[in-house]
């Protein structure tokens, strides 16, 4: 039996920071809830309550919700409208596809003066003769003439409704008796089958075990046939048959889940051997890198988890000698090269790549001399150029200290001879020297000299 718990409501109140005392809207649909409780004490500020697609047989424990405006109870097992007088602000009530057969119970809603919409489509009472004249708020606009006609013949319609109600209630009593007999028969058959499967102790154990194995095989082969037979068996559409169908689906689901869990246990991978040796495991088949930080005091694990994977699907467990990460139920385990401090470890997601980064401080830190920033930069330059003092000896330029005392500035610039021609004084290089350097040169007197 599924009940409404505080944990269930808090999980459904994520939009309200998991606070339930100030909750104004909550959705508890498709939870297989079989009873309404605690909501009127925990959520007094509720305005909207969704409870559709459950197994609720009775409207209860909502009368203290003074601010409730919308209540959705569609697709449940409700047979009577009741306990809504305290919902002073109720404007909309949805009871679509239930089992309301006491149409006269609609009259209890006369205390809900703000009620504007009522939905009873799919209920047995919607088939009653005079239903439209008796129920005005059923998702259809009411005309003025229709309202006058309904008021004039209300007494006759009410009497007709009462008679149909009595016939329906008698039919429901028979359906309940039939459902009870069917349930007892099913329980008796299940008990007999259990006793037949139990092995005897009268010396015929081998034969009993053989029969049991054969019966198990037949059961596995006929499981689909039994399921098909269940759904094809004719039955009345009643709250009992709906619950029975739900029970059948739930048992089948649990059986499949048990088989899956059994297979998982059988296929469970050994993470730590019997002698205590930790194994490396990578079930999710993710890329990773394991390295030390710059100071050498931390071990960094970069695990390439899926970028858009929700962090709630990750579980990180750091131990002194190994780390284990569970990614969507699959285990990643890695043995560490040295012992670390689990309490000081940090796990975070990269904002750019989405990778999981785990920083694990080493248990024994390395003590290194402090290096000034200048020496660090010079050492980085030397490392980039390859001219380190360790790799090569230092090359020094030797200068005679005697020549460093006096600097001679006299002959820094070479003097050039000037040639005077007219008012201009032109400079020319010593062509004679350059000409003499050329072999086979003839100086012709007919050619004037170059200026």
Q: Provide a count of the helices.
A: 10
> How far apart lie the N and C ends?
121 Å
Order of helices and strands: HEHEEEEHHHHHHEEEEEEEEHEEH
Question: Oligomeric state of the chains?
Answer: single chain
Helix content: 25-40%
Rg, nearest Å: 47 Å
Q: The biggest beta sheet, please?
A: 5 strands, parallel
> Stretches where pLDDT falls below 50 for ≥5 residues?
199-206, 424-429
Based on Cα principal axes, name the global outline.
elongated
Give the integer mean of the pLDDT values: 79
Strand line-up across the major sheet: 1-2-3-4-5
Question: What is the number of strand segments?
Answer: 15
What structural class do helix, strand and pairing data support? alpha/beta
Written account of the structure:
This protein has about 450 residues and is an alpha/beta fold. Helices cover about 30% and strands about 15% of the residues. The protein has ten helices and 15 strands. The strands form four sheets. A five-stranded parallel beta sheet has the order 1-2-3-4-5, with no helix packed on it. The longest helix has about 45 residues, at about 155-195. The termini are far apart. Residues about 200-205 and about 425-430 have low confidence and may be disordered.
């Amino acid at each position: 039996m599924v009940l409404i718990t505080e944990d269930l409501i808090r999980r459904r109140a994520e939009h309200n920071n998991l606070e339930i005392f100030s909750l104004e809207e909550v959705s508890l649909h498709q939870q297989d809830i079989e009873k309404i409780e605690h909501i009127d004490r925990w959520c007094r500020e509720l305005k909207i309550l969704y409870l559709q697609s459950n197994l609720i047989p009775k409207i209860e424990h909502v009368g203290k919700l003074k601010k409730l405006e919308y209540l959705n109870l569609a697709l449940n097992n409700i047979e009577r409208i009741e306990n809504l007088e305290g919902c002073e602000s109720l404007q909309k009530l949805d009871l679509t596809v239930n089992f309301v057969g006491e149409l006269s119970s609609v009259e209890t809603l006369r205390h809900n003066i703000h009620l504007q919409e009522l939905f009873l489509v799919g209920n047995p009472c919607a088939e009653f003769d005079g239903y439209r004249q008796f129920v005005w708020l059923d998702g259809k606009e009411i005309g003025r003439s229709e309202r006058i006609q309904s008021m004039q013949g209300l007494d006759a319609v009410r009497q007709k409704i009462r008679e149909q109600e009595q016939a329906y209630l008698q039919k429901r009593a028979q359906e309940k008796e039939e459902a009870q007999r069917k349930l007892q028969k099913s329980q008796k058959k299940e008990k007999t089958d259990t006793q037949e499967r139990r092995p005897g102790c009268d010396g015929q154990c081998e034969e009993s075990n053989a029969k049991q194995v054969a019966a198990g095989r037949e059961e596995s082969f006929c499981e689909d046939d039994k399921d098909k037979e269940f759904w094809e068996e004719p039955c009345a559409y009643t709250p009992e048959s709906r619950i029975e169908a739900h029970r059948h689906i739930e048992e089948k689901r649990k059986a499949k889940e048990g088989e899956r869990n059994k297979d998982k246990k059988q296929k469970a991978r050994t993470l730590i051997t019997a002698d205590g040796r930790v194994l490396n495991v990578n079930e999710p088949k993710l890329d990773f890198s394991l390295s030390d930080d710059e100071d050498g005091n931390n071990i960094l694990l970069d695990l390439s988890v899926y970028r858009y994977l929700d962090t709630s699907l990750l579980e990180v467990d750091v131990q002194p000698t190994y780390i284990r990460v569970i990614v969507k139920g699959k285990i990643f385990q890695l043995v560490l090269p040295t012992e670390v401090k689990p309490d000081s470890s940090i796990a975070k997601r990269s904002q750019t790549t989405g990778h999981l980064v785990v920083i694990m401080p080493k248990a024994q830190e390395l003590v290194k001399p402090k290096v000034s920033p200048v020496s660090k930069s010079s050492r980085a330059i030397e490392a980039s150029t390859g001219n380190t003092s360790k790799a090569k000896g230092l090359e020094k330029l030797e200068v005679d200290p005697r020549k460093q005392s006096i600097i001679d500035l006299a002959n820094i610039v070479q003097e050039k001879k000037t040639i005077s021609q007219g008012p201009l004084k032109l400079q020319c290089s010593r062509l004679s020297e350059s000409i003499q350097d050329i072999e086979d040169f003839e100086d012709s007197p007919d050619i004037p000299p170059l200026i």
